Amino acid sequence: MFKDTGETDVIDVRPDERFDEAKIAAYLRDKLEGADSPLTVRQFGGGAANLTYLLDYGDVQYVLRRPPLGPVAPSAHDMHREYRVLSVLWQVLPYAPRAYLYCDDPEVMDASFFVMERRQGAVVRRSIPPIYDGIPDAPQRMSYALVDALADFHAVDYASLGLSDLGKPEGFIERQIEGWYKRWHNAKTEDLPDMDAVYNWLKKHRPPSPPPTLVHNDYKLDNVMFAHNDPSQLIAIFDWDMCTLGDPFSDLGALLTYWTEPDDPPFLQATATMPVGDARFPKRTDLVQRYAERSGRDVSDVRFYHTLGLWRLVVIAAQIYIRFVRGQTKDQRFAGLGAAIPLLAQAARAVAEGDVKSA
């Protein structure tokens, strides 16, 4: 979803990712408050898959989300799913931005899209935003806020929101293993023995799943936003297009997947979507313990979920890279993924075999 740190992530729309702004303005004019004013469109440049745009009407702003260009896996870029979740989740989870409308009319845009509220704050990626320079314990505060929000999300009564049919929780992890392995074979540009080894390990070590919850499916530090004046206040959670019902520990595994510690080997640090080498951030063990305390859940099988998260990340990277190789996107940020993919696979195998600790 949009990842804004003020205006730093807002860019001019990339030439190959433009749409008919006049057509969108006409469509939205009588559907959103303030949309009768002139529209200026810019783009949030931080995302790696779905395309996210700022709709600026002067006195009011919205965010538009659509899938990436070219053929994509619908289950990974499901705008209707994201709209459905965000159109109700905001009522019980303050971190969920509110979605206002969904459109799949090809006369309006060549892909489905939805429009949601804009929230503003700070997103943390590879460095701590300067606004937190005067808060020495900012890394710890934002980390625990991140974990607490995940536990709170997993406690949501999804049935009360009408989301009982959002997914099929029975067999969730087995489908994850088989589904991502199939996607790997569809997206890979070379064979990697590490991927096959981890697949076999996951099949052998799959634990029994707890009662199902809502699952975000891409939970990590740079998918949330914090208040500018308080890193312990989480403002928003982003990227809900893969939200479903399933095993909550898969979200904890995803969080560990993107987390790094200063003494991690380079191939594991390469997976991080956070500042690298900053010892002020809690260790993975601390995150797991915090989640256990907040949620009351048994976290003894966390290594399996960490491995699954890393293995899945390899496939996600391969899906993005193959679009770049095929010319479906010209975003040069993705050019280096070809070299990163084998390192990610190595990281997954290292965690599976116990060479790197999860908790």
Mind explaining what this structure looks like?
By secondary structure, this protein is α+β, with helices and mostly antiparallel strands. Helix content is 36%, strand content 13%. It has helices at residues 21-28, 79-89, 138-154, 172-187, 193-205, 249-257, 266-269, 284-295, 302-325, 337-352, and strands at residues 10-11, 40-44, 51-56, 61-66, 99-103, 113-117, 213-215, 224-227, 230-237, 244-246. The strands form 3 sheets. A 6-stranded antiparallel sheet has the order 1-2-3-4-6-5, covered by helices on one side. It has a two-stranded antiparallel sheet with strand order 7-10. The protein has a two-stranded antiparallel ribbon with strand order 8-9. Helix 6 crosses helix 9 (302-325). It is globular, with a radius of gyration of 20 Å. It starts with 9 loop residues before the first strand and ends in a 7-residue tail after the last helix.
